[in-house]
Structure formats: structure tokens, C-alpha cells
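Backbone-to-sequence.
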């Protein structure tokens, strides 16, 4: 089977290269010799894209691939790919460059990739719990599966039997059920009308009945994603991967979602270490207006009950302000001045930027400049970043042009002026500063009873038996738990050297928590860069609610929306109460009168 699939892959590749994409390859050959490196890269990318044939199954990651995985390991993952001696053998020697990888989750294969084939499970592209029948129904496929006496076929020789076995031969011990009479009559009718002469004919009919509707549904599903600018079977191995691509396709070009550069890799490592979840608390209690009381029997009876569906927060969270543009890092040891950080990169005295030496950067810039001048025909003015910064400072015309054409949220800091802990906290409280703050924070003694039911500061720490109370310590000793410290998520009244997003830190300040020390500020430009994605998902889900024929559209966009927030902690890290200067709220001085200076 594997050899035959590779033959199909090779034939498909040659057809794609020589017919469907013939014009593309001819165009690549017309590019200038000066751009030979870029031409080769484009050609290689296209060849890799065309050379790998998707092989798709339904629940195959759990069943089919597990059955034949020993063959896969030997045939596709361990043995070397034969050298391509000519185009007639594999189309192009570049096909050897395809990556081999296996993505496995528990006992399921999400994907197996070889230079020629890519095995996928379609259940990773649909909502959890969708059966095969529901999948076909969702894409309005009328043809259904047939019936076959699985357990009756105990050897290959059985396939040569010339008569249809009795109904009890279709019994399934897996389902503990017999084939209904009407279904057996249907199989008997097909046997007669199709002129079947052996059980082998019935097996072929059954397999065709199994694959034809699947192909029809799969084609419709791929066509849907094509309308979103996505190649479902090539761009990802599951729906979260497709969502990620679509998420950035819908992001306005004016926004630049902030990733972490090589020069800030220490920040990346620190954030990874400090990733925490949140509390998952399920209350199974009966509440009633006018009867349920707050704070015990002596408390006041509630006057209203409000319920929230947490799933509804996904799209809300991802449509909030996100970190965009490159961050500006300000450290306490440099009095929170960004100028000192930027100077290390200015005027050519840098040795390494983004993994490239200054000489490499200079050569790349020279190539781009030559292209712009000779090919595009535009005037190019070059200068170092520090020169540009100095020019902006003394030229109001440039400053005004930037404000009009490149609007950004103004930084509350001046590059050169030193900052204090209180000035930083005030700007966070007033909503001027957006980003991350590494600090020491605590709940004051006067508020600890207020937060006693749920400590507000979450962190991961190593917990030993010495850190827990006597009752739980006895329980742990009895059941031989906590023999060694275990890293655990806890709620606490204290956070030391902890990174907090400014919206969350603002909430802490509004609720009376105290920041003892600030070590670093990472400032971003806030922008609702994924608002468009949230709007598209919401609109299509509404269309599905209004029009039953658009149900699959609604379900698919629901899946995309949930997949975009598959890590809600990361997304909600930057989501505060949604308030800015427009909210009616007390000032920082009102909340903290003793610290107003």
C-alpha cells in the first residue's frame, strides 16, 4: 500500500509540475540572474509544496495508522529516500528535501510527514465528538456507508465465497447488535442488482460506499477553507494551525503583532517560566433570589443572580488590545530609561542583531537599496537609526507627518528622563502604560480577610509537606504523597519578581494591592489587531443561527473562534476591565492618597 501511495504521489507531482503549475515554473526561469538565490528559494518552496501528497482518513490517527505503524517506521521514517537519478523517477531531486516528522498525542497520530506523503486525520479538523455520520450530514452528503460482515471474514479465502452469508453473519460483538432486517434486505438487493459473484465484490462495493461520501464531504470542506485563503490539507495538521494562519490573514497590515526578538530571548525564557493558569472552580449549589445569603446565614440576601458562559469570553478576549510593535524594555538599574537600551544598537556599533552580524545586515541593506534604485526607480535616503532619532527631535514637520500617517499610542515616558516607581504605577493606573512589569507585589494585611476566599496572586512554586497545614500533611503522609517537592499552581498574597500584564496590575492597584518594587518595564503599543477576526467569526455564527442552511458555516467558525483562544490564559493576559480614560473611576490619588507624591 505504501509503495502504491508513493507511485500516486510521484504521478500527481509530475502532473502538477508539468501542467497545472507550468506557467509558474516558466515565470521563475525568466527572473534575472542577479536574483538567482531568490528564484531558487521560490522554486524549492513550490516543489516541496507540490511533491507531498495528503493521505486523509477519518479517525485514522487512532485506528488505521496504529495498525500499520510498524511498517511506517521502517518504510518512511527510518530508511533513507533513494537518490533521484532522473526526473522520470521522482520529478526532481529537490523532493528529497521534504521533512519527516511524526506528531503524536497520547495514543493518536495527528500527522505523519514524509518527503512524498502527509498522513492526516480529518477528525483534527472538525469539532470534537463529531461522528462520521454527522460529518457527512454537516456537508449535506446523501450517500451513506454500506454494511459488511466484518467478523464473518476470518480468512482471505472467505472472500471467494459465492453467496451472501445469512443475516446473523453481520452480527457485531463490538456493538453487541445484529444487522436490522431492512438493512440486510438492502444488502441482498444490491447483491442481486449489481450481479455480485463473491464476497470480494461485496467488499469492493462496501469500500467504495465508505470512501465516495467521504471524498465528497472532504472536497466541500476544503473548498470552504479555500474561500478563507487557506489550503486545509497543506497549511496545517489540525484546525488550530489553520486558525493561526487565518488569524494573521485578517489582521490589518498597519498592525505588527509583537513577537520576541533574539536580542530579548532572556525575556522569552522568563515569561515561559512564569506562565500560570487560573482557578477552575465549579460550584454545585442552589441559589435563589431573596433567599441565598452572602457571607453566611447572618449576611444580606442577594437581590439578583447573574450567570456567565465562559466560552463567550473567548472572542471577547482575543478582540481586546494586544501587544504590537517591538517592545521597549526599561530596567531599574538604568533608571527605566529606554535611551540607554537603544544606544547599544545605534550607529553601527552592534556586533549581532537578530542572529546576524553587522556586516551581514549591511550587505542585505545594500542589496535592497540597489533593487529599489535600479528596479523600482525610487530615490533612497539612508541613515542610521540614531541619526533618524536626532532628526525627528529637531524637525516638527517630520513629527507631525508621523502623527498623521503612522499614529501610535504615545509612551508616557521620555527616553532620556528617569522614572520612579510611583510615576510608573500612576501611568499604569491611568491607562497610559501598556505592557509587562516585573515587580514585587503583595496584599496588605488590612485586605487579607477580604481576599481570604480566593487569594488573587497566582504563581507556580515548589510545594513540600512543610508548606501545607497539619491536616493535609497527615493526609499526604498517610497516602505517601509529597515525598519530594512538587511544582504546583497556588493562589497567594505575595508575588516576588513576578511578571504582570499592566491591565491585571491595574486591577490589583484598583483593589488595594501594594507594589513594593519594580525591576523592569516592557512597553508595547496596544492595538485591537484581532478585532477583525472576532467580528468575522461572530457574524458568521449569527448567520448560522438565522439560516439553518448555513449551520455548517456557523459550526466551522465556532471551531475557528474556540481554536484561536485555545490558550485563553495567554490571550487574557493583556485583557483588563476594558476601561481607559472614558470610564468613570476614582483617580490613582483617590485610591492611594498616602502615595500621591
Amino acid at each position: 500500500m505504501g509503495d502504491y501511495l508513493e507511485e500516486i504521489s510521484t504521478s500527481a507531482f509530475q502532473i502538477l509540475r508539468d501542467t497545472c503549475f507550468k506557467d509558474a515554473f516558466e515565470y521563475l526561469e525568466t527572473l534575472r540572474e542577479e536574483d538567482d538565490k531568490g528564484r531558487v528559494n521560490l522554486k524549492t518552496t513550490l516543489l516541496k509544496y507540490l511533491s507531498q501528497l495528503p493521505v486523509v482518513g477519518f479517525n485514522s490517527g487512532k485506528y488505521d495508522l496504529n495498525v500499520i505503524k510498524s511498517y511506517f517506521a521502517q518504510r518512511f521514517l527510518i530508511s533513507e529516500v533513494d537518490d533521484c537519478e532522473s526526473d522520470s523517477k521522482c520529478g526532481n531531486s529537490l523532493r528529497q528535501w521534504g521533512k519527516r516528522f511524526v506528531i503524536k498525542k497520547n495514543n493518536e497520530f495527528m500527522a505523519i510527514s514524509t518527503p512524498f506523503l502527509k498522513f492526516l486525520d480529518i477528525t483534527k479538523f472538525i469539532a470534537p465528538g463529531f461522528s462520521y455520520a454527522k460529518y457527512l450530514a454537516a456537508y449535506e452528503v446523501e450517500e451513506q456507508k454500506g454494511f459488511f460482515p466484518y467478523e464473518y471474514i476470518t480468512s482471505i479465502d472467505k472472500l471467494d465465497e459465492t453467496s451472501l452469508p445469512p443475516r446473523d453473519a453481520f452480527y457485531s460483538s463490538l456493538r453487541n447488535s445484529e444487522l436490522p432486517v431492512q438493512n440486510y434486505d438492502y444488502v441482498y438487493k444490491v447483491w442481486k442488482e449489481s450481479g455480485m459473484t463473491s464476497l470480494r465484490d461485496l467488499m469492493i462495493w462496501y469500500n467504495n460506499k465508505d470512501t465516495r461520501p467521504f471524498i465528497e464531504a472532504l472536497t466541500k470542506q476544503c473548498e470552504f477553507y479555500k474561500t478563507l485563503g487557506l489550503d486545509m490539507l497543506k497549511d496545517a495538521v489540525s484546525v488550530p494551525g489553520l486558525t493561526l494562519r487565518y488569524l494573521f490573514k485578517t489582521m490589518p497590515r498597519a498592525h505588527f503583532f509583537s513577537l520576541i526578538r533574539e536580542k530579548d530571548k532572556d525575556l522569552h525564557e522568563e515569561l515561559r517560566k512564569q506562565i500560570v493558569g487560573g482557578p477552575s472552580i465549579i460550584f454545585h449549589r442552589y441559589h435563589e433570589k431573596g433567599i441565598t445569603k452572602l457571607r453566611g446565614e447572618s449576611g444580606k440576601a442577594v437581590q439578583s443572580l447573574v450567570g456567565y458562559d465562559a466560552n463567550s469570553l473567548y472572542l471577547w478576549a482575543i478582540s481586546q488590545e494586544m501587544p504590537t510593535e517591538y517592545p521597549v524594555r526599561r530596567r531599574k538599574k538604568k533608571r527605566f530609561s529606554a535611551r540607554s537600551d537603544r544606544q547599544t544598537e545605534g550607529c553601527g556599533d552592534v556586533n549581532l542583531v537578530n542572529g546576524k552580524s553587522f556586516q551581514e545586515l549591511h550587505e542585505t541593506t545594500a542589496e535592497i537599496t540597489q533593487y529599489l534604485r535600479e528596479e523600482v526607480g525610487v530615490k533612497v535616503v539612508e541613515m542610521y537609526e540614531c541619526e533618524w532619532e536626532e532628526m525627528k527631535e529637531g524637525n516638527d514637520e517630520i513629527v507631525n507627518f508621523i502623527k498623521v500617517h503612522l499614529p501610535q499610542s504615545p509612551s508616557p515616558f521620555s527616553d532620556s528622563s528617569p522614572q520612579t516607581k510611583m510615576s510608573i504605577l500612576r501611568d499604569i493606573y491611568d491607562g497610559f502604560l501598556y505592557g509587562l512589569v516585573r515587580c514585587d507585589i503583595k496584599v496588605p494585611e488590612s485586605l487579607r480577610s477580604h481576599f481570604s476566599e480566593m487569594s488573587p496572586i497566582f504563581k507556580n512554586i515548589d510545594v513540600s509537606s512543610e508548606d501545607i497545614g497539619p491536616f493535609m500533611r497527615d493526609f499526604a503522609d498517610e497516602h505517601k504523597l509529597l515525598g519530594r517537592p512538587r511544582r504546583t499552581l497556588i493562589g497567594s498574597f505575595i508575588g516576588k519578581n513576578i511578571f504582570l500584564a499592566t491591565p491585571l496590575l491595574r486591577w490589583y492597584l484598583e483593589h488595594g494591592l501594594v507594589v513594593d518594587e519594580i525591576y523592569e518595564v516592557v512597553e508595547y503599543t496596544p492595538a485591537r489587531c484581532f478585532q477583525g477576526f472576532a467580528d468575522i467569526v461572530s457574524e458568521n455564527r449569527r448567520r448560522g443561527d438565522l439560516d439553518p442552511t448555513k449551520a455548517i458555516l456557523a459550526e466551522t467558525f465556532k471551531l475557528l473562534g474556540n481554536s484561536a483562544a485555545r490558550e485563553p490564559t495567554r490571550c487574557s493576559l493583556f485583557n483588563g476591565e476594558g476601561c481607559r480614560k472614558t470610564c468613570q473611576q476614582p483617580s490613582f490619588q483617590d485610591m492611594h492618597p498616602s502615595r500621591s507624591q
